[in-house]
């Protein structure tokens, strides 16, 4: 049965047989880079369309339905428009930082792809500190946002960037702590270990109530980290017009836009990996027959379903909730989520030590 | 227009109840004998001299049985010979209404501001200043409100002529 | 022509906490800004995110309607008011038509009164629905906007059928209404009532009960009763501060003294109170329409009037309750075919003057919520 694991292994052996191992590594890196970029482009197209369709059905309208089959090419047409647009740089802006910011945001989003396991044995870099790496890299994006806000020389941008900075730095804590809960259960920071540990059931079921609490906190925190409604204060369009990317146009704006969607994908992929077993099919304890039946669905499909389920959840939030105010946002984190996640971590530790989990 | 003779009626004025137009007329003329009544309007209408307006305004607002706390319309009319400020006052407690008018010199229109008594007057007076050129003395922030700061003339005056934007029918 | 901002001359004293003047940030919200719903320009002085001062700069769509009216006849000037508060254009027209009728002592037929009141209340409903959607959007919830428009569209369709227009109806004439109701009118209004009744609870479900929403609007934009009166606020803005100011109750016109409905008064004084007042007013409007729709009497829809109207010499002040508050028309007539002077007392203008008072000390996000609950319509303010 051709699986993604087989394909990569075939390519790897073929390359090593025909060229020197250094060149093979280089070629593999090139392939991976191309695949990552391709994934980004496709993700952008799909997620933007998905968001528009989801919001349309929630808002009793049809959404894009003119370009392509049921509007499937709408995002492509929009991208074409954005590519052709002039990318303005304001006169008072800090030119270097202004033109660098969106690349920083984009690169930060791309770097997180490295340790993600997309399917069984299909992973770019199975680093032994995978989860830590993700936490570290995901906070680089805020530097890009701050750069954009500061360099634009626009008060709205500045306010947006400051809000975004405060927000991401605060919510990083809760996200990190809820990730730690899972790390406690596994005893490893390596993504493949975490996925394999869910062989006999996903952590959201295995970890009792603490895991569910951790998942809720995680979802809230990553929604805030990706600047999505109800935490979209950084670009609150009714308050700050467009926040940190007010002055961006054309492809520069498109990169911010794309980075937002890639970030959503990435955080949902992490959420799916930690709490829903990543590519691991739905296994229940020792029900061999059931587990075996589930294995017939390819692991990549499992991963995609889980990730898109979480993405839908985050989109659902956006089109349902009003926006929080900046002080309420910080209150929520520092007064409620942070103590709660600390206590939760403690409870989880007790559960793990006593072996109360499945 | 006639100067109304003061008639003493001790019962009026002490009762905090709703007054009809007639009662209000008797009461106010008793309280403020210097006012001149204008007849033939829906509401009781008085003329007041521009320099007496501020004291009258204070009394109208604060008198226990008048309490005109709601200035619902403040405007100006250009009568070509003079300008007339028109203040529509009502009391949210007693629901009685009075209209105070004041004639201003057209060449140098000046009247005391009342925006410390009714704060809605701040914007309305700026509007009147903007469109009629009435100077409100002691107004905290008397600037053009609707028109641009460098606008010449006062558009709602009858002799204002704008060759570009004027609508003539 | 760009307006120069001399905010520096009007600087506030440094607040407690030792932040000097130099650290204040001045932000221009508008004239083009998503939250101002039009071309309102607010110059905001900020200390961090806290508002120190809000200074409205008006006039970006000032058309000097008052001056224009001086050269329009009494039949024509009515329709300039549709362009002021375009969301309650019917009610504005109604006020002007009533003031001409009052001056000429024209008795209008019963049927016309019924039609007028029903259309007034439908206009109020449509206006409140738009306000609800737009306010939710200001606060960041985009979906309610579409829900509000679903119902508003039905009212617009009714208006289109009967009046021939969807926004600026221009249906009132001195002496009645311009033409008779469309035969479908009653049927469609009843359909609308039945539909809206089933949906109004949905409004509460999606927005009112939301914790985030309640936290956003509770306790902000405080306007005490005394301040509301002093600032000349009317309409839901004042009624949420406990001021009884519904013109329909205090100075009933047309049929309003024969109709059963409640004046909604709330003493919450904050943005949430203003929100609740408007939500409940929708139900009251629905109640009024329900009472009238089955009883529209047969007969003329317009009284016989002269072709050229000349108002007697004198002054006439008429007021009605629009969706935003008390709308007044002050006509000074010299006995000619055109008014000598017209003053429109627009509710938005007075309500806006209280904005600075309400917004001081709140966050910049609150300003949007406060403006949303005052329900500003900019052409109404600029005239």
Outline the structure in words.
The complex is a heterotrimer of chains A (358), B (169) and C (383). With 358 residues, chain A is an all-alpha fold. Chain A contains 15 helices and 2 strands. Chain A has one domain. Chain A is 69% helix and 1% strand. In chain A, β1 and β2 form a beta hairpin. The radius of gyration of chain A is 21 Å and the shape is globular. With 169 residues, chain B is of the alpha/beta class. Chain B has 3 helices and 7 strands; from the N terminus they run αββαββββαβ. Chain B has a 5-stranded mixed β-sheet with strand order 1-2-5-4-3, covered by helices on one side. In chain B, β3 and β4 form a beta hairpin. By secondary structure, chain C is of the alpha+beta class. Chain C folds into 2 domains: 51 residues, no CATH class; 318 residues, Cytochrome-c3 Hydrogenase, chain B. Chain C has a 3-stranded antiparallel β-sheet. Chain C has a 3-stranded antiparallel β-sheet with strand order 6-7-8. Chain C has a two-stranded antiparallel sheet with strand order 4-5. In chain C, a hairpin with a 2-residue loop joins β4 and β5. Chain C starts with 24 loop residues before the first strand and ends with a helix. At the B-C interface, β3 and α3 of B face α1, α7, β6, β7 and β8 of C.
Please outline the helices and strands.
The complex is a heterotrimer of chains A (358), B (169) and C (383).
Chain A (H helix, E strand, L loop, with lengths): L3 H15 L2 H38 L15 H11 L10 H17 L5 E3 L2 E2 L6 H9 L2 H11 L3 H32 L4 H6 L6 H4 L1 H18 L11 H4 L9 H26 L12 H8 L3 H20 L7 H29 L4
Antiparallel strand pairs in A: 1-2
Helix pairs in contact in A: 2-12, 3-12, 4-6, 4-12, 6-7, 7-10, 7-15, 10-12, 10-15, 12-14
Chain B lengths: L20 H11 L4 E3 L5 E4 L5 H10 L7 E9 L3 E9 L6 E9 L4 E3 L8 H12 L2 E3 L32
Parallel strand pairs in B: 2-5, 6-7
Antiparallel strand pairs in B: 1-2, 3-4, 4-5
Chain C lengths: L24 E5 L11 E7 L2 E8 L7 H5 L19 H16 L5 H30 L3 H21 L8 E2 L2 E2 L7 H24 L2 H7 L7 H6 L4 H5 L7 H4 L20 H23 L20 E8 L4 E8 L7 E5 L1 H7 L1 H5 L4 H11 L3 H5 L1
Antiparallel strand pairs in C: 1-2, 2-3, 4-5, 6-7, 7-8
Q: By helix and strand content of chain C, what is the structural category?
A: alpha+beta
CATH superfamily of the largest domain in chain C: Cytochrome-c3 Hydrogenase, chain B
Low-confidence stretches of chain B: 1-16
Domain module count of chain C: 2
Give the overall pLDDT of chain C as a whole number: 84
CATH class of the largest domain in chain C: Mainly Alpha
Within the largest sheet of chain B, what's the order of strands? 1-2-5-4-3
CATH topology term of the largest domain in chain C: Cytochrome-c3 Hydrogenase, chain B
Largest sheet of chain C: 3 strands, antiparallel
Oligomer designation:
heterotrimer
Structural class of chain B: alpha/beta
Taken in chain order, the helices and strands of chain B follow as HEEHEEEEHE
Using the CA coordinates, give the radius of gyration of chain B.
17 Å
Order of helices and strands of chain C: EEEHHHHEEHHHHHHEEEHHHH
């Amino acid at each position: 049965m051709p699986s993604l694991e087989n394909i990569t292994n075939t390519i790897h052996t073929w390359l090593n047989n025909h060229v020197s191992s250094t060149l093979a590594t280089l070629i593999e890196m090139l392939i991976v880079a191309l695949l990552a970029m391709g994934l980004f482009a496709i993700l952008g197209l799909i997620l933007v369309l998905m968001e528009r369709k989801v919001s349309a059905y929630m808002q009793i309208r049809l959404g894009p339905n003119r370009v392509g089959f049921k509007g499937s090419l709408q995002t492509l047409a929009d991208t074409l428009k954005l590519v052709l647009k002039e990318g303005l740089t304001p006169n008072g802006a800090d030119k270097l930082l202004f033109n660098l910011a969106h690349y920083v945001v984009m690169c930060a989003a791309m770097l997180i792809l490295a340790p993600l396991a997309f399917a069984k044995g299909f992973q770019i870099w199975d680093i032994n500190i995978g989860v830590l790496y993700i936490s570290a890299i995901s906070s680089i994006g805020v530097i890009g946002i701050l750069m954009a806000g500061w360099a634009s020389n626009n008060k709205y941008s500045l306010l947006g960037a400051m809000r975004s900075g405060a927000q991401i730095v605060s919510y990083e804590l809760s996200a990190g702590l809820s990730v730690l809960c899972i790390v406690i259960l596994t005893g490893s920071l390596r993504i493949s270990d975490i996925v394999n540990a869910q062989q006999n059931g996903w952590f959201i079921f295995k970890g009792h109530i603490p895991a569910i609490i951790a998942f809720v906190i995680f979802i809230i925190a990553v929604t805030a980290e990706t600047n999505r409604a109800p935490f979209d204060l950084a670009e609150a369009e009714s308050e700050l017009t467009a926040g940190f990317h007010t002055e961006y146009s054309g492809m520069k704006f498109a990169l911010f836009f794309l980075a937002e969607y890639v970030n959503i994908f990435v955080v949902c992929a992490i959420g799916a990996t930690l709490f829903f077993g990543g590519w691991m099919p739905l296994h229940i304890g020792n029900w061999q027959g059931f587990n075996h039946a589930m294995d017939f669905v390819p692991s990549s499909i499992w991963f995609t379903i889980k990730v898109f389920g979480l993405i839908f959840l985050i989109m659902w939030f956006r089109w349902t909730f009003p926006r929080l105010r900046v002080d309420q946002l910080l209150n929520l984190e520092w007064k409620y989520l942070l103590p709660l996640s600390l206590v939760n971590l403690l409870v989880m530790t007790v559960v793990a030590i006593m072996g109360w989990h499945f | 227009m006639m100067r109304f003779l003061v008639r003493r009626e001790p019962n009026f004025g002490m009762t905090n109840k709703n007054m009809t137009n007639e009662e209000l007329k008797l009461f106010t003329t008793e309280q403020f004998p210097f006012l001149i009544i204008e007849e033939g309007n829906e509401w009781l209408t008085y003329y007041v001299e521009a320099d007496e307006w501020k004291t009258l305004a204070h009394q109208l607002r604060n008198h226990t049985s008048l309490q005109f706390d709601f200035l619902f319309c403040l405007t100006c009319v250009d009568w070509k010979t003079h300008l007339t400020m028109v203040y529509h006052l009502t009391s949210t407690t007693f629901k009685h209404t009075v209209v105070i008018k004041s004639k201003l010199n057209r060449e140098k229109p000046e009247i005391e501001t009342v925006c410390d008594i009714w704060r809605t007057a701040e914007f309305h007076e700026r509007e009147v200043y903007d469109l009629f050129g009435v100077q409100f003395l002691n107004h905290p922030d008397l600037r053009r409100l609707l028109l641009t700061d460098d606008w010449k003339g006062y558009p709602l005056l009858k002799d204002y002529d704008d060759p570009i934007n004027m609508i003539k029918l | 022509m760009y307006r120069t901002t001399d905010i520096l001359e009007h600087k506030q004293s440094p607040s407690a906490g030792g932040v000097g003047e130099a650290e204040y940030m001045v932000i221009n919200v508008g004239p083009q800004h998503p939250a101002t719903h039009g071309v309102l320009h607010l110059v905001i002085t900020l200390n961090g995110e806290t508002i120190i001062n809000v200074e409205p700069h008006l006039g970006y769509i000032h058309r000097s309607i008052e001056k224009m009216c001086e050269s329009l006849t009494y039949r024509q000037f009515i329709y300039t008011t549709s362009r002021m508060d375009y969301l309650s254009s019917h009610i504005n027209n109604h006020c002007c038509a009533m003031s001409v009728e009052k001056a000429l002592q024209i008795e209008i037929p019963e049927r016309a009164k019924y039609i007028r009141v029903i259309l007034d209340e439908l206009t109020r409903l449509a206006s409140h629905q738009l306000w609800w959607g737009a306010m939710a959007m200001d606060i960041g919830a985009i979906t309610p906007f579409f829900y509000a428009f679903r119902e508003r569209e039905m009212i617009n369709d009714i208006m289109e059928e009967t009046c021939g227009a969807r926004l600026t109806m221009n249906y009132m004439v001195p002496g009645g209404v311009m033409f008779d109701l469309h035969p479908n009118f009653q049927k469609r209004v009843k359909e609308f009532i039945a539909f809206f009744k089933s949906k109004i609870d949905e409004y509460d479900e999606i927005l009112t009960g939301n914790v985030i929403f309640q936290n956003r609007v509770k306790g902000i934009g405080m306007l005490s009763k005394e301040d509301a009166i002093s600032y000349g606020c009317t309409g839901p803005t004042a009624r949420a501060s406990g001021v009884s100011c519904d013109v329909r109750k205090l100075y009933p016109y047309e049929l309003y003294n024969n109709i059963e409905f409640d004046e909604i008064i709330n003493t919450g004084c904050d943005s949430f109170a203003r929100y609740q007042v408007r939500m409940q007013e929708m139900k009251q409007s629905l109640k009024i329409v329900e009472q009238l729709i089955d009883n529209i009497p047969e007969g003329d829809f317009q009284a016989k009037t002269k072709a050229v109207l000349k108002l007697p010499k004198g002054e006439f002040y008429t007021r009605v309750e629009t969706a935003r508050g008390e709308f007044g028309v002050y006509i000074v007539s010299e006995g000619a075919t055109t008014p000598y002077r017209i003053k429109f007392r627009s509710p938005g203008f007075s309500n806006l003057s209280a904005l600075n008072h309400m917004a001081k000390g709140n966050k910049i996000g609150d300003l949007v919520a406060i403006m949303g609950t005052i329900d500003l319509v900019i052409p109404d303010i600029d005239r």
